[in-house]
Write a structure and sequence with these properties.
alpha/beta, 5-stranded mixed beta sheet, 17 helices, elongated, disordered C terminus
């Protein structure tokens, strides 16, 4: 049975440590388990994860008693309601005024008492007045990964049930060969937006070679998006077997779907709040942002300028490709396809 240590016990622990007793012997004398002694010393010294020999040398009964009383006070003050006024005030101050992340709050403030996921969930569910995910350091791009699988699943269900198109073309129906990147010709699609205008850049990345294409679009309206997608499919006819994108209205629009169907390209929609399912595209977008920061007005960017940036990225050596570039690997697959088609043509004739 667990025993709560008192000040007298802590004085004994300090004395026995100085006399050279090990944790097991101290536990026997105090009549508690060895793990109780270990936890007591770690809490008092803040040395979780450090060697026990190091922690022992820092243990003092007076300091340990103060830590224990503080922890008891916090427990009584907050009780079962983790979302206390104190925690809300600290979270709001740290994020809004000091630009801390939820991780820094949890691990930077001693005994804060809640997990990183809990803070993200409070923000996501609008439980903290005046604070939303757009005010986080990463503008909310990563916070949804901190949600539990149960909460993520509830979001997926809520939205996908309302849209049969998304269900019919769910990423869950994507072939294993696409998922594990064993086949060439399967792409990911996304948009990089401009804060200064309606213009945006459509980015497409081939999953196996990581070769990237970027096309300027006048807006997110379905007509402009479908025209840009149509241009891409015309330019890369024969090497696009499928496209995976998010559930943005511009990609789910009937005009965009008609463009996919016209070119006989399969298309899939990733789960809501799951950017990791289009990780190849997300990684490329970050590279593109190095050239075009968030304040870039894409209305003032030309396609020729964008192509120069693309060439720079596509010709970089990649460790994943044994330091061959995306372009080299992409061309190698194209040559293989052309040779294969020539063999088929000869066999037919």
């Amino acid at each position: 049975m667990y025993k709560h240590l008192n000040f007298e016990d802590r004085v004994k622990i300090e004395t026995l440590i100085k006399e050279g007793y090990n944790f097991s012997k101290i536990a026997t004398i105090i009549k508690v388990s060895r793990s109780t002694i270990t936890r007591e010393i770690q809490k008092a010294t803040g040395g979780k994860g450090l060697p026990n020999k190091f922690n022992k040398s820092l243990y003092y009964a007076n300091q340990a008693e103060q830590v224990a009383r503080k922890n008891l006070y916090l427990k009584k003050s907050f009780g079962k309601n983790k979302m206390s006024n104190h925690r809300v005030k600290v979270i709001r101050q740290k994020i809004l005024q000091e630009k801390w992340s939820p991780e820094q709050i949890v691990y930077g403030l001693r005994n804060f008492g809640v997990s990183v996921s809990t803070i993200y969930n409070w923000i996501n569910q609008n439980k903290i007045k005046g604070l939303n995910n757009k005010l986080l350091r990463n503008r909310g791009k990563r916070y949804k990964r901190a949600l539990s699988e149960r909460i993520r699943a509830s979001y997926r269900q809520r939205k996908s049930d309302l849209n049969k198109t998304i269900q019919h073309h769910s990423i869950d129906k994507r072939l294993k060969s696409i998922n594990n990147r064993t086949k060439f010709g399967h792409w990911e699609l996304d948009g990089v937006e401009s804060m200064q205008s309606n213009h945006l850049v459509l980015t497409l990345v081939e999953r196996k070679s990581r070769f990237a294409v970027a096309i300027l679009s006048k807006s997110k309206h379905a007509k402009d998006i479908s025209d840009s997608v149509d241009k891409f499919l015309n330019d890369y006819h024969g090497v696009v077997k499928s496209i995976t994108c998010d559930r943005g209205s511009e990609f789910v629009a009937s005009l965009t779907q008609s463009t996919f169907k016209k070119h006989k390209v399969k298309y899939f929609y990733a789960h809501a709040y799951s950017p990791q399912e289009r990780g190849t595209n997300e990684n490329f977008n970050r590279l593109l942002r190095e050239y075009y920061p968030k304040k870039t007005n894409f209305a003032k960017v030309s396609q020729s300028n964008l192509n120069k940036i693309l060439y720079s990225i596509n010709t970089r050596p990649m460790k994943r490709h044994k330091f061959k570039s995306r372009l080299v690997v992409f061309k190698r697959h194209l040559r293989y396809i052309n040779q294969k088609n020539m063999i088929i043509t000869k066999q037919i004739s």
